[in-house]
Amino acid sequence: MTTFEREADLQLAGLPAIGERFGGDDGQVFEEVARGGHTIDALVTRPNEAGQQERAELGIGEPLTGDRRAIYEWVARKDGRPMGDLLAVSPGDERAEDEALVDELIDDGWIDVTEDGLLTAVAVPRPVVTIAVAFALDAVDQARVSVNRTATFTDRQYVVTTEACREDACEAAHLFRSVGVGVAVLDDTGALDVIVEAETSAIEDQVTARGLAEDAAAGWL
Q1: What sign results for the dihedral spanned by CA atoms 29, 33, 34, 38?
Q2: Which end of the chain is more exposed for a tag (fewer CB within 10 A), N or C?
Q3: d(Cα 15, Cα 201) in Å, to the nearest integer?
Q4: pLDDT at residue 46 is higher than 70
Q5: 18 has which bridge partners?
Q6: Burial (CB count <10 Å: 0-12, 13-18, 19+), residue 169
Q7: CA 16 from centroid of its chain's CA atoms
C-alpha cells in the first residue's frame, strides 16, 4: 500500500469536484477547487459551520472522526498521539467505529504503532507531483479510480489506480478512450505503467466527479 506525501506542493489541480465528503456547500467547494492552488489539507479542513456547531454542542474537538481520511490526517498532523486522544474526542456511538478504522489503517500500512503504543503516520513517497480531485467512471465505479496529474504526464489527464484494479481498468479501457482520459497503474514499486494514452482535451461530462480527494492518493481503493 502506498501513501501520498503530505507536502505543501501537493496542490489540487484546477478541476471541478463535488464536496460530498468535506461538508459545507457543494457549490462553494466546486468554486474553490476550480480556482486551484489548494492543498488537500486546506480543502478538507475548511470551515463547516453546521458541523462545528454540532460538535461544539457535543463537546468534541478535532478530529472529524468517522472516516479513514480524517483519522489519517489527524494522526499525520501530529505524530506520536495515543489512541486515547482520538477516542476521547469521538462521539460515544462512533468510538468503536473509529477504533476499527484505525485498525484498518494500521493493517493497510497507512498508520504504524510505536512500542509505546503511539500512533504515527507512515509516509511512502510516490512519483506524483500534483494531486487532482478524484473521479470515477460509472462503469468502473467499484474500482474507484482517481484522476491524477504527474510529472511524467504534463498537461495530460490520467486515471492512476493500483495494481489490484488493473483488470478493471483494462476492461474499461474503451470507456476511458471515449472521454480522452488515460489510464496508468501504480505498481508496488511506485512505477507507472500506462495502459491507455490520454488526449490533451478536457475531461467530458461522462466522467462523474466523486469528490473523494483522498482517493486521489491512489491508496484508498
Answers
A1: positive
A2: N
A3: 13
A4: no
A5: none
A6: buried
A7: 15
